[in-house]
Amino acid sequence: MAEKAQSTRVEQRPSDGGVEPTGVIFDVKRFAIHDGPGIRTTVFLKGCPLRCPWCHNPESILPSPEHAWRAGPCVGCGACEAACPHGAIARSPDRPIVDTDRCVLCGQCVEACPTGALEIVGRTVRADEVVAEIARDVVFYDESGGGATFSGGEPLMQPAFLAKLLARCRALEIHTAVDTTCHAPWEVLEPLAALADLLLCDVKHMDAAAHSRLTGVSNELILGNLRRLAAAGRAIVVRMPLIPGRNDDEPNIMATGAFVASLGGVARIDLLPYHEGARSKLARLGRTEPVLDAPRPDARHLADVAERLAAFGLEVKTGG
Q1: Are 40 and 33 in contact (CB under 8 A)?
Q2: CB 256 within 8 A of CB 240
Q3: If you ran DSSP here, which 8-state letter would residue 157 be given?
Q4: What are the structural domains of the chain?
Q5: pLDDT tens-digit readout, 225-282
Q6: pTM score, two decimals?
Q7: Cβ neighbours of 180 (radius 10 Å)
């Protein structure tokens, strides 16, 4: 895409003398097209209260920065171990082992790595830094009806930081979306929802027991929050990850369709097919939890589920 003239909109630093809020993010993806309308910049915040075995962003779960290692570039030179001033890294036959009790995430091991095999996932940033990066592409947002999306993890886990990001974007007339599980107290969710232009809300399973078994938390708070958001007239797109053998059975599909239709005013329901993208990420992070053993839904299965949901009068989009 060709470079275009810079927008005349300028990000302003706070003038009230207050402390600029900071947050922990792990990625910023420009020119995203699956995280809301138009061309968007998606900011990924760390921390999530759920433990979904199909999560394709396992690096988002822990709220703090963490080490990641790639086997391919690593030459086993031991530079990372030698560089650590805290004795927090030891070599093993397979990979560097980081002692998280000793590690202070100073980054000296990363700087010493000659091949870039070791990195720290997650960084602490100021709200104004993030919004300045978002504002670089306002011309593309204006032309495409896009904007900024705050995802994760669960962005509601950093409410003060998220509130500042949303308020700054609103001041710059940048459309905002929050991609959320809705698993947060209403007193946290309500003011943030009022600042956002669009909420992308997950519905993973309608059965409370199954939801607890799959994600580690009940769905009662989530469904209750969705009802309250809809009653308040908030713009909502429901997102349903489709996980074969976990939530794609007929009773759950029908219960999901009935629930979303009952909310009234939901713009659309998005079906997000499961994929194994987390496998390589878990290996890099040194995580030992097993990768979910499930196939990716094929086009026919997606179309069948979409047809059942559409029968409730819902607009359904597949993919993403």
Answers
A1: yes
A2: yes
A3: G
A4: 22-62+125-318 (3.20.20.70), 66-121 (3.30.70.20)
A5: 999 999 999 999 999 999 999 999 999 999 999 999 999 989 799 999 998 878 889 8
A6: 0.90
A7: 28
Residue with tokens 């299965």: 301
Tens of pLDDT, residues 30-52? 999 999 999 999 999 999 999 99
CA gap 320, 303 in Å, rounded: 14
Q: How many CB atoms lie within 10 A of CB 145?
A: 12
- What is the DSSP secondary-structure string of 189-219? HHHHHHH-SEEEEE---S-HHHHHHHHSS-S
Q: How far is CA 272 from CA 65, 202, 303, in A?
A: 27, 10, 12
- Paired sense of beta strands 40-45 and 96-98, if any: unpaired
Rounded to the nearest 10 degrees, the angle between the axes of helix 186-195 and helix 159-171 is: 20
Q: Are 270 and 285 in contact (CB under 8 A)?
A: no
Of the candidates 135, 146, 218, 213, the residue with the CA atom closest to the CA atom of residue 181: 218
Eight-state DSSP code of residue 133: H
Sign of the alpha-carbon dihedral angle for 91, 93, 99, 104: positive
Query: What is the Cα–Cα distance from 237 to 268, expressed in whole angstroms?
Result: 5
19/193 Cα distance (integer angstroms)? 23
